Amino acid sequence: MRELSRQSFGCIADALKAANKLSKKLKYHQLVAIDTQEIPSKSARKNSGASYKITACLELKSDIVEAERRQAGRFILATNVLDVNQLVPSR
Questions:
Q1: Which CA distances in Å does 76 have to 72, 73, 79?
Q2: Which residues, listed in sequence order, are joined to residue 32 by a DSSP beta bridge?
Q3: Quick one: pLDDT at residue 77?
Q4: Do 33 and 70 touch, CB atoms closer than 8 A?
Q5: I need a surface site. Which of 16, 67, 69, 74 has the fewest CB within 10 A?
Q6: For residue 17, how many other CB atoms are within 10 A of its CB?
Q7: H runs (alpha helix) in the chain
Q8: pLDDT of residue 73
Q9: CA 30 to CA 60: how far, in whole Å?
Q10: CB-based burial label for 29 (10 Å; 0-12, 13-18, 19+)
Q11: How does pLDDT run across 59-88, given as a tens digit for each residue?
Q12: What is the rounded CA–CA span in Å between residue 1 and residue 35?
């Protein structure tokens, strides 16, 4: 997101296209409150035009994160020791 907010774009459509492209790459987050800001040209020429920057907020996709946590929260403890007296649960 930092990289996207530092870039300047020639038009609003390019800026929004880049934001949507980044949004599709994110697995556990989504972009919300996507906004474009017009940055006036620093040159004195009238036809040089303005550039545009993106501002947005990242929001966690809690349903996907929770599903991943449930799936990753399992493990198996295996051993070759068959003697029940040798394996005490308190250790």
A1: 12, 10, 10
A2: 57
A3: 76
A4: no
A5: 74
A6: 12
A7: 2-6, 12-25, 62-72
A8: 67
A9: 6
A10: middle
A11: 999 999 898 888 886 777 788 888 878 877
A12: 13
The C-alpha atoms of residue 23 and residue 15 are separated, in whole angstroms, by 12
Rounded distance between C-alpha atoms, residue 21 and residue 23, angstroms? 5
In the chain, what are the domain boundaries? 2-72
Cα-Cα end-to-end distance for the chain: 47
Separation CA 15–CA 6 (nearest Å): 11
What value does the mean pLDDT take over residues 11-40? 89
pLDDT, average across residues 39-52? 72
In this prediction the pTM is 0.61
Distance CA 10, CA 41 (A): 11
**Tokens at residue 74, please?**
């399992």
- Give yes or no for residue 15 having a pLDDT over 80: yes
d(CA 20, CA 56): 11
Which structure tokens are listed for 55? Answer: 């501002």
